Amino acid sequence: MAGPSHYSLPLPEFDAPVKVLIAVAPFYRDIADHLIAGARATLERAGATHDLIEVPGALELPVAIAQAYRRSNFDGFVALGCVIRGETTHYETVCNDSSRGLMLLGLQGACVGNGILTVENHTQALVRADPDHQDKGGGAAAAALHLVALDRRWGRPKGSVGFRPASENIQLAGDGKGDGSGGTA
Question: Which domain CATH number covers 107?
Fold first, then answer.
């Protein structure tokens, strides 16, 4: 009997260049290398450029991506790492908090593909990370690219919602286009 069939969306096409940050926690170097290879291959197939950074562990991935989101010009982000269940509850903390951190970034507008593997053992991780098998690194890169495509489609600017910086209010008051009240948009 054949296993379940999984569908993957075709990679989006872009009119303008796409720059993606791959952030990886290489605690399990062999797993990380497979995840990186899959992510890079997917980004290259889509014509995206990428930078790579390493952080100590999965809990640092959302922090590093948040810093890059606030301070850089990346269009998307790919978080890669592996958490293997151990003898303590630390596994649940790392899995839940790293995932929650990435989700919160996404809800703030960052285009993040989550490629943090959460597995029971090293063998499961290898199957999921290997670009010739489940290619979860490539899947995380594809997710980030799809979110970038949606972000560009809807064209929402980055920045605050509903408020103008005081400097804009002063300019509006002086150019005859604003009401001079210095209020919000």
Answer: 3.40.50.960
